[in-house]
């Protein structure tokens, strides 16, 4: 495996983007009459004197197909991790110019948006979970620590939605998601129990 291929694989591991050869530069040539060069002449191949080195840059990857976004749209992890799936609070971030060179600023902006998007999924999941608790035991929920946690998470979500002109879900929508989550949880529990009985 040559040096260029190794660099491509290393960059792909750390960023997920591709690389592109943009130019070639000549390595420095030692002066023939230099005592320093004569001393290290046997090592010139090791240090790359006179060789051509490709300059590699990261390329912005392709975005998934874009669809109209609604709060609560379900997102499936393409890696098949069910624990990462969930309802989206914000649109999934997108690279501004796929196929074009990636810069530090572009990379920073994308992953900052990704962190916000990922947190939105987690916060909305917890809001739905607290809504389930509220529906199941309204008297116990009122004035509890769970009610306070729900208020804090809801305040953060509504703040981001307001800053981005996104319409938040209604109370009815939250309760519908909570009921759906309860139904799916009961179905999964029934399947698990049936499998245990078959053993």
> How many domains in all?
2
Query: Segments where pLDDT lies below 50 for 5+ residues?
Result: 21-27
Largest sheet report: 2 strands, antiparallel
Strand order of the largest sheet: 1-2
Rg, nearest Å:
27 Å
Task: Set out the fold topology.
Elements: H1 3-15, E1 18-26, H2 35-39, H3 44-47, E2 52-59, E3 74-75, E4 86-87, H4 104-136, H5 138-141, H6 145-163, H7 171-198
Antiparallel strand pairs: 1-2, 3-4
Helix pairs in contact: 4-6, 4-7
Write up what this structure looks like.
The chain has two domains: 3-59, no CATH class; 74-198, no CATH class. The protein has seven helices and four strands. α4 packs across α6 and α4 packs across α7 (171-198). 9% of the residues are buried. Helix content is 53%, strand content 11%. It has a two-stranded antiparallel sheet with strand order 1-2. The protein has 199 residues and is mostly helical.
How is this structure best summarized?
By secondary structure, this protein is mostly helical.
Features:
mainly alpha, two-stranded antiparallel sheet, 4 strands, single chain
């Amino acid at each position: 495996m040559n040096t260029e291929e190794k660099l491509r694989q290393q960059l792909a591991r750390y960023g997920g983007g591709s690389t592109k050869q943009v130019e070639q530069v000549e390595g420095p040539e030692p002066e023939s009459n230099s005592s320093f060069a004569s001393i290290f002449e046997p090592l010139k191949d090791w240090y790359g004197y006179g060789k051509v080195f490709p300059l590699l840059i990261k390329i912005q990857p392709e975005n998934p197909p874009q669809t109209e976004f609604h709060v609560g749209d379900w997102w499936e992890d393409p890696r098949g991790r069910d624990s990462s799936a969930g309802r989206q609070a914000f649109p999934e971030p997108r690279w501004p110019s796929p196929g074009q060179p990636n810069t530090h600023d572009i990379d920073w902006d994308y992953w900052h948006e990704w962190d916000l998007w990922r947190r939105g999924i987690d916060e909305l999941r917890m809001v739905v979970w607290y809504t389930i608790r509220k529906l199941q035991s309204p008297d116990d929920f009122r004035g509890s620590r769970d009610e306070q946690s729900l208020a804090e998470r809801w305040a953060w979500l509504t703040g981001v939605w307001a800053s981005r002109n996104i319409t938040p879900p209604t109370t009815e929508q939250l309760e519908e998601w909570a009921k759906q989550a309860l139904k799916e949880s009961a179905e999964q529990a029934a399947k698990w129990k049936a499998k245990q009985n078959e053993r």
